Amino acid sequence: MSKRSVLVVAHTGRPEAVRSAQLVIERLSAAGICVRVLDREADDIGCAGVDVMPSNAAAAEDAEVVMVLGGDGTLLRAADLTRTSGTPLLGVNLGHVGFLAEAEREDLAATVDRVVTRRYDVEERMTIDVTVRRNGTVMGATWALNEASIEKAERERMLEVVAEIDGRPLSNWGCDGVVCATPTGSTAYAFSAGGPVVWPEVEAMLVVPISAHSLFARPLVVSPRSLVAVEVLADTPRAVLWCDGQRTLDLPPGARVEVRRGAEPVRLARLHLTPFTDRLVTKFGLPVTGWRGRVRQPATPSPAEEAPQVTGVETIGGGTGAGPAASDLAGTDGGASGAQSG
């Protein structure tokens, strides 16, 4: 039987992430699991007995899981290492919102124990493939888990683009840029640009203009089978393409960015089967005061259990009658205030 291995990726610019990585390595090693770290992070982490791996896709090959210690940016960086191998990512949030992370810093020891005992589920998230052409020639190709954003490169002038869906022109926009996002990315840049929140299990692509000067500049939700293209007009300043804030490419006037559903999904390890609604409430601190949920129906009592009917007697709370039903006092099946993040 081959030896179990886990890749640990950390935001080594944060002392807390380095300390957390050291704790994770110690506990995994004590459980007999081989630990890998990236060569660009090994000196900062400074643990003996680990396998130092090149910072490329080979680092995650044959690993059970990649534990990511940091924020969403660190997890997106790790996703670039794991997409081809299909190794699931398990994020521990040491940042701010941390929408992609599965666990919080205070749950670190328990999270490691779940990895050791293989008590986690894996889900797949849709990605997008991005191709850049100019005059029919491919200039570059990349991918994204969250979004591909076409942005102006010069602050003083608007970017002029034309959007195309499935080979048909849709609209010109004078704008700061256009975000093409996945459902996973709907709570990232697309959300900040005014796009809709899309539940992760929905398969779709989002097109969100940024600060567009146009009567028709609404966020669009299109089929996952669609081909979305954004062309930088010839008389506009140059633009820049960003994918997940990690990979970038300059776009000269006349460049065409094509976005389609990705051939390879990203796999995320899940410890909690928490509804996405609860994740939204927790991460954004949404107010849910007054929510009661479905009212429980009282069970029909047997004849022997029915209370005798007494009339004309005042109850302790004032008024007459039997008082409120038990279902009115119990109220709900559960509240959102107890929602776990994840």
From TrEMBL:
It is found in: Cytoplasm. Residues 292-342 are annotated as: Disordered. Gene3D superfamilies: Probable inorganic polyphosphate/atp-NAD kinase, domain 1, Probable inorganic polyphosphate/atp-NAD kinase, domain 2. The keyword Cytoplasm applies. Residues 332-342 have a biased composition (Gly residues). It catalyses: NAD(+) + ATP = ADP + NADP(+) + H(+). Keywords: ATP-binding, Cytoplasm, Kinase, NAD, NADP, Nucleotide-binding, Transferase. NAD(+) binds at D72, G73, R77, N146, E147, R157, D176, T187, A188, Y189, A190, F191, S192, Q246. NCBIfam families: PRK03372.1 (NF002892). This is NAD kinase. It comes from Actinomadura montaniterrae. The gene is nadK.
